Amino acid sequence: xxxRKEPHSIAxxxxxxxxxxxxxxxxxxxxxxxRLRAGSEVVDTLPRGMCANYIISPYDSLIKHYSxxxxxxxxLVSAVIYHESRFDNDVxxxxxxxxxxxxxxxxxxxxxxxxxxxxxxxxxxxxxxxKRLHNAYRNHTxxxxxxxxxxxxxxxxxxxxxxxxxxxxxxxGVDSSYxxxxxxxxxxxxxxxxxxxxTIKFGKFRGDETIAYVDNVLEKYEQYKRKAAR
Length: 230
Hints:
Blueprint (H helix, E strand, L loop, with lengths): L6 H38 L15 H11 L3 H12 L19 H6 L8 H18 L7 H14 L1 H13 L7 H7 L22 H20 L3
Helix pairs in contact: 2-3, 2-5, 3-9, 5-6, 6-7, 6-9
């Protein structure tokens, strides 16, 4: 016996099938959209132009390890190394500084390094020294950025030279907690009259190299921050 389907029954069945198909499509689309959004969130965690795997030098892993161990940004340390040696471990200065971070042998020995021409030892003591310089200016200025500038200046010229600059700035009635103020009085430290001041222990200071060094390292640091993830 055949069963005759009423037209309205067929319409209901078709309507139900359309609803089911639509639901399946909607669920699939929603799932795909959710996956795309999740992927976008992962990508958007880094600013435009920054890459999680950006390579600065062949020594990135080493620099990251020792920078993390002392609480420094590895991109800052990389910027220092770039200006010290261009990541060439064989570079030596006429004053005897050597290795990636151009440490003086006496300073490196004081920090416990046996061989600063070894990249591991050179980066280890170089980051440690930079951190100690940074800490040395904690009581001098409350501004972290200013503290960094003083640390970089001391890394380049020596902490004694920078202390001379601070003493002279104070003598001149200048706020010595800002590096820009120090820069403003450095030209006066090139004059012979500076030798007559008792608080100046290291004599005349030209300072051009140090001023440029601070600016250039900070500029390179900003470039690395735009490209490489922390």
